[in-house]
Design brief:
about 50% helix, about 15% strand
């Protein structure tokens, strides 16, 4: 939240090199969308691996997390 509160313009291009040195120019808004989607992808991978090994993964939906924080649900 500090990052969001301290940066006003997300409609701008970020120029950078990735971890293997490839150069890219990407709109910051698109990077933020990717960040959210990519995290969901990995949470799904972990849940699948747990289920394949006979475990029931915890609920990782953001809305559930928010409901716990607001007191609407118990942990």
């Amino acid at each position: 939240m500090d990052f969001l509160n301290n940066h006003e313009n997300f409609d701008r291009v970020l120029k950078y090199r990735n971890y293997v040195g490839d150069y890219f120019e990407t709109n910051v808004q698109q990077i933020m969308i990717h960040l959210v989607n990519h995290g969901s992808y990995h949470r799904g991978q972990v849940a699948l691996l747990l289920r394949e090994r006979g475990f029931e993964p915890v609920n990782t939906d953001y809305i559930t997390y928010d409901r716990v924080l607001s007191g609407q649900l118990k942990e």
